[in-house]
What does this fold into?
Amino acid sequence: MIKRSYLLFLADAQNTADAKTALGLRDWAPEACVAQWSLPGCTVDVGIPYLAPAEAFAAGARSLLIGVAPVGGAIPPFWVPALLEALEAGLDIVSGLHDRLADIPAVAEATARLGRQLHEIRHVSRRFGVASGRPRTGKRLLTVGTDCALGKKYTALAIARELESRGREADFRATGQTGIMIAGSGVPIDAVVADFVAGAAEWLSPNAPAEHWDVIEGQGSLFHPAYAGVTLGLLHGSQPDAIVLCHDPTRLHINAYPDYPIPALEDAIDLYLRTGRLTNAAIRCVGVSMNTSRLPATEARAAMALAERRLNLPVVDPIRGGVGAIVDLLEMK
Amino acid sequence: MIKRSYLLFLADAQNTADAKTALGLRDWAPEACVAQWSLPGCTVDVGIPYLAPAEAFAAGARSLLIGVAPVGGAIPPFWVPALLEALEAGLDIVSGLHDRLADIPAVAEATARLGRQLHEIRHVSRRFGVASGRPRTGKRLLTVGTDCALGKKYTALAIARELESRGREADFRATGQTGIMIAGSGVPIDAVVADFVAGAAEWLSPNAPAEHWDVIEGQGSLFHPAYAGVTLGLLHGSQPDAIVLCHDPTRLHINAYPDYPIPALEDAIDLYLRTGRLTNAAIRCVGVSMNTSRLPATEARAAMALAERRLNLPVVDPIRGGVGAIVDLLEMK
It folds into this structure.
């Protein structure tokens, strides 16, 4: 379990794209973001207090969260003194980087000596079992998509929050790095060994009270030539009662795969329900979450209205108008 | 690459079920099986010469192949002297066990000192990339199934052999442990990290001459609540031109999952084609491979004839009558 009171580390970030992780945390877990800290040359400010590790610890921070992706992916040597300063100040470190902090001898030594923890979110340390396929108590919603990177995490967070704001019991269940940092726990599902993906998804949303909703962050897409297997394993293990299809109406093909068209909404819903039915015969689609960020407001409204008529389902944009219509439908049954 | 001239190690096996791996090798790669060897108390004989490691090396063996699964899965300490004797005699070791031989200090030390290799087939050392989704040259056939463990490996081997016997170029592509031992190479696809399953399948059957067939061993089933994601990743990365559906007509539910019924053949073929079409629009089903080993001959013939009429496709049992009818259909186009 991650200690969820963060000092956001921006290193020498030059622009907001570099600091995507830190910004996601600030937006979705502001109560967990105690302060920001950076190295000389950093030009990004995420708009919260600036504190060095010792000050941040005094202010309640317990984890240094790596909020940037270094160019090239490798951890630059000039970060190491900053990481050591954080460990000495009493902070654990939370990292979604591919390179392991534990492979840096000075960091590993200080971590062990000081009794700190390294949460390397991209790497799975826990072993999962094979999925049982047995139903669990409680209700589950999974966000799915016509593609990757079009709002599955955002939609799940928004739905979980809307349920809570209505006084319902709900948990956001994270399956990707930023989601795990936001939630403080979760499973980086695409890093699990293939045989255990569905089992890991079962573990992630255990038995719960009958009216409790687990709102599970989806990954990939059944229409993605590289990741569909991950998506199917997550779908089967999650055993969702409800799915929400996430879609970007301006995207014409799978991101970075120009030969793979985005499926029609009807086809996508049909395949998710057909395959999802294997582990939950009562699965239903409760709406479409449309990412209309690239459209002017009038065109966005028109695209959503058209889809709503075609599908006879609520179509929302979580940023433009929220997910209320989907949660209304969830509560109807 | 495994040195494919084997001394089959039977340890203290008490029955043929214990020695399933060794028997599979003897049946499917007899030319690679130089001899068998065992420990005191073994009561299994796979019907080839019995030689100790030094004699086996002199007779041409280059790898000790662990042909049994120890009870409980762990490698018993009383095996270790035998493993060391094999390494000293000049043999590599090939193992499909879950426990790593490299974790036994004496084995690791002898391996390094003598310059031998440990092929631990259940563990993936190579890193695979993300699938590109791009078409490759050459032809591909993938065996798929209504369930696990009903003949996908056997069917693929039989089809590859039948193609070769007709003078066609063909390669069996292994995706499981016994298949890899038979072929001398392959990818244990269910041990690959989920994100890279389709990429590993692309790597396994690379570009080939236009008329060459890769005959790929399938894994799992789209109808299996734990393994469907593996099956889908393998299907997408293999981009098969042809699938053969493997089926056991006496099985009523997914093995060990009594709540999961075996799908109708029509539904199974339809879902494999629908999902397979994503990466190869020309995918077709060229037949059903029926495992009728639990039926008397007359009932087996009746079951196959009925399925043939229902599906209008060749239905064969590779053991009772061979796969000729499927290969006839393959050659038609």
